[in-house]
Specification:
The protein is an alpha+beta fold. Helix content is 35%, strand content 24%. A six-stranded antiparallel β-sheet has the order 1-2-3-4-6-5.
Length: 125
């Protein structure tokens, strides 16, 4: 039996987006929840975020021209640079077109990387 997600702090943010961006970010959010089942939804820096053990794992958002995943650390983008070819990145940002979302396995691996990083270093956004 699939249980529907309860309403949470991300809903107002997602409701403000056009259908394509909302769909892309809802898909990204679902992958984060699968990769970090104990993570809680929160808002950080005005954006939807996931927190685990009191520490931010990842944030995400949309702007006029793209969607973005913010891994919450300066090391994650560098650690996955080879798998991020073709996406626009900066030290703490991965930008993508909502019609061409980030691969699910990549998002899952970034979230797992952040879980491990937070546990080792106590990293937080």
């Amino acid at each position: 039996m699939i249980r529907e997600r309860e309403s949470g702090p991300h809903d107002d943010y997602l409701a403000s987006l056009d259908d394509e961006k909302r769909s892309a970010l809802e898909g990204l959010s679902a992958v984060v929840r699968e990769a970090a089942p104990g993570a809680e939804e929160t808002i950080s820096y005005g954006m939807p975020a996931y927190r685990l053990d009191g520490k931010v794992l990842v944030l995400f958002g949309a702007s006029a021209g793209h969607c973005a995943l913010y891994p919450g650390s300066g090391t994650a983008v560098k650690a996955f640079a080879d798998r991020l070819e073709g996406f626009s990145t900066s030290k703490g940002t991965i930008r993508f077109d909502p019609g061409d979302p980030l691969p699910r396995d990549l998002v899952r691996d970034i979230v797992r990387y952040r879980i491990a990083e937070n546990r080792v270093r106590g990293g937080d956004a």
